[in-house]
Amino acid sequence: MVKDKDIKKFMLQHKPVVKNSDAFMKDVVRQMDSLPVPSAMDPKHQKEDCIRIVLEVSRKDLRSVRLAVSVIAIVAILSAITISMIPSEFIPSIPTELFHIQLPGR
Amino acid sequence: MTREQFIAEISALQEPLRRFLLGMCHGDAFTSDDLAQETLLKAYLHYDSFQGRSSFSTWLFSIGYRCFCDHIGKKILDTLPLSEKENLIPSVDEGGNREDYNELYSAIDGLTASEKATVLLFYIEDYSTKEIAEILGMPSVTVRSHLHRARRHLKKILQENGER
């Protein structure tokens, strides 16, 4: 009965053999020399990327502060409008007797 | 990653990649080395698109597999019935530049391209089914079913060889 380890053993025993690795790599590097350096590997581009990230973060912060200010202003205006619209009779009256102050000499 | 680091990384991975492609090309070293070279240059040019979600080797092998599929014309293969597909994948009986005609190539000859890739990556390159799924761009379930079918096929071949 052939088991999984027999398959593994067979595959490893008969695995393809690659040759001339040094010559192959030399050829690849020579061809890479004639190609443009990808921006992710270019130190100049990496600096520009850092600047871009910093600017983006500060812009994001500024945007969130502006948003918070706008929300607070809108809430304040809406509450002012709502309060002014409530008729005065709905506002609980304060018993005036409580404030009846006897002034001395009267 | 700097250019030097990239070269160091691909130097370490070029042998497994070439071995995988050599297995896929049934020992045609010229074709497999051409594909490996194309893979490494594509990886270099498109390094910006590597987001690090998978490992570098998985990413490199996935480019290699796509290069192989482009080479055998996967788009044509996808529209053809299975019996005709098999004719387009290089087989051991064909002539050409096969340096090492060995038992492995004849054992995996009856498998489809994705099954061959699964078997080579699993048994020789020691990748997990999850990693193979990433490389081949298919769900893990499909990889496991490929592996199951390939195992059955290889067991049959090895049993026949053992009986001789």
Molecular structure report:
The complex is a heterodimer of chains A (106) and B (164). Chain A contains 3 helices and no strands. With 106 residues, chain A is mainly alpha-helical. The mean pLDDT of chain A is 82. With 164 residues, chain B is mostly helical. Chain B has a single domain (3-163), classed as Up-down Bundle (Butyryl-CoA Dehydrogenase, subunit A, domain 3). Chains A and B meet through α1 and α2 of A and α1, α2, α6, α7 and α9 of B.
Number of E-type strands of chain B: 0
> Uncertain regions of chain B: pLDDT < 50 for 5+ in a row?
92-100
Instruction: Tell me roughly what share of residues is in helical segments of chain B.
Output: over 70%
Under CATH, the homologous superfamily of chain B reads PhyR, sigma-like (SL) domain
Summarize the structure.
Helices cover 62% and strands 0% of the residues of chain A.
How are the SSEs ordered, and which strands pair?
The complex is a heterodimer of chains A (106) and B (164).
Chain A: H1 4-13, H2 21-33, H3 43-85
Chain B: H1 3-24, H2 29-45, H3 56-72, H4 74-79, H5 82-88, H6 103-107, H7 113-124, H8 129-136, H9 140-163
